[in-house]
Amino acid sequence: MPFLVVEEKGNTNHYQLVGTEASIGRAPDNTIMLTDEKASRHHCVLELQPDKTWVLRDLKSRNGTFLRGDHVLETPLQYGETFQIGLARLSLFSEESSAFETKNAMDAISDSVRPGAAPFALGINEALAGFAHASTEDTPKSILDSAVMFVGRLLPGVRVCIAIADGEGNARGRAFYNFISGTPTDELPPNFISLANKVLAPRAKSQVRPRSAAHPPCVYIPLKAGDRVAGVLYVERESKDSDLSETQVELLERAASLVSVLTGAAESRRNEEALESKLDSFENELEDVRNELEAKLDMQTAELTALRMEAEKRDMPRWKNDYSDIIGKSAGMQEVFRMLDKITDLPVPVLILGEPGTGKELIARALHFNSSRAKSGRFVAENCAALPDTLFESELFGYVKGAFTGADRDKQGLFGMADGGTIFLDEIGEISPSMQAKLLRVLEEGEVRPIGGKQSKKVDFRLVCATNKELSEQVRKGAFRQDLFFRINVVTIKLPPLRERKEDIAVLVDHFLKINADEAGYPDIKMDRGVLRAMLNYNWPGNVRELENEVKKMVALSDGKKIDAALLNPNLRQMAEEESLSESGASLKDVVEGVEKRKILEAIERTKGNKSRAAEMLGLSRLGLRKKMERYGLSD
């Protein structure tokens, strides 16, 4: 059970605290009644909190309540702490303290004890507990505050100050205990600094000063830190009744060795805080420098990128048509563009071969929109694999009103819509033999008759087909009509899979990243270098479509700042994590240049050193190839 010890006018009374509140003052209805003239009738109250801690709250008293020399209105009160009302000193102790026989607050009996004896016995236990508590503090001020409290509890009836040398070597009070005023330095002796400075000197000894008419007895004790004096422990009696005894001075000198440990801890913590402050300042300066360098690097990178793009644009072959919607700088794609330039305005069927996701419809669109048919007709596209036989004929050829149940109006077919333009039939290898025959008739006669119609209509269209199957093999197996194959396979364009045009991957990633980042509102998003390296080495069975979806997913799942390996699909993730480690020093620029260098060497090897053929294979001019070889240090 906690209790309160009240030292007043030479007497010590002990009150067991029952309940959650104890009122203190001169009025008889208080839990604890004081006789000090400076105590108000209802001076203050102690309140027990739900977490079993105590709060001291002043009740707007006239002369105030003081804790550690500070005037307080409401503050937590720890076990072992002493607060002061006038000249009365009140100390809170826990139930573990057994130095006194406690009494119920309502039946308290005042016991007169020999001044100094009982408080000293009490002080030993509580002071040691206070010292243990002081060692757990983490700020210089709280450590020193706990240190002066430790001394004050060890020897009741004293005021305590710890002085530390300032930058000029003068002793300055840093922590105070039991001083009444808000400015404890005003209560120190006039010669405090000069006497404390003497004790700060090397090999100095304690200075004991007897009582005088102006000031009570006191002692200055050096606080040593190794071979030097780090501070001064100043202790004075509250009263001028008697001097400090030799026993008391000896006790204080022994206590000073413990206080030295605390002042050393406070000094270490103060040095740590100063170092932390310097480190924070240094880190802030480094961050400013880093940001400045990054800004300059970004600006220079942007300038170099613009110059490189301009140089590459000059070095790129001059195409007759616009292929800006098709991303590709690889030799394979340059060959596709070269073929497109030749056949764009030729009235011949075109068969586009390529794996799923290689961009076959983009090529078909380029054929149409770069041709004269873009002005006279539409581009009409249909995926044959998505049409069952029951719908194929009506979708492609159309129907007339009343042709079948539900045909309540005429409907134009896709061939009719494409009149004057281009019709693109994707997955042509998926249509059934019966539909193949009907399609062949349209191609042979150049006219289409809607379902239920009696007359055929001439249609002028350009046919572009696409498939990911080997139609010649399908013909051999009898799954695809040979005559239809000959009709559609006049000019063939074969799209290389992404694994065969890896130099395009970085460009495609950058393209899709910018599009999706802009849509998501992530203008500053970056990609981890290991992620790009893994994407460059991955085979991409789903080709460009798979790459586009992967980038879209990573942007959507990112935090808007960085794309790392954790966002990749499992097939790519392990590869990216390995690449992040192995390529931790490689920038995006280094990775792209590494791919370009490798591709140049491969082209030169395949052409047996023929620079003109190698440049053509890479989609570069001979001058452009020579510049890149010089840049990468590749000898002739």
Summarize the structure.
The strands form 7 sheets. This protein has a 6-stranded antiparallel β-sheet with strand order 2-1-11-10-7-8, covered by helices on one side. Helix 14 crosses helix 16 (570-582) and helix 18 (611-618) crosses helix 19. The longest helix has 70 residues, at 246-315.
Please render the helix and strand layout as text.
Layout: E1 3-8, E2 11-16, E3 21-25, E4 32-33, E5 44-48, E6 54-58, E7 65-67, E8 70-72, E9 74-77, E10 82-85, E11 88-93, H1 117-134, H2 140-154, E12 158-165, E13 171-177, H3 192-200, E14 207-209, E15 218-225, E16 228-237, H4 246-315, H5 331-343, E17 350-353, H6 360-369, H7 373-376, E18 379-383, H8 389-397, E19 398-399, E20 411-412, H9 414-417, E21 422-426, H10 433-445, E22 447-448, E23 457-458, E24 462-467, H11 471-477, H12 482-488, E25 491-494, H13 505-520, E26 526-527, H14 529-537, H15 543-557, E27 562-563, H16 570-582, H17 588-606, H18 611-618, H19 622-631
Helix pairs in contact: 1-2, 2-4, 13-15, 14-16, 17-18, 18-19
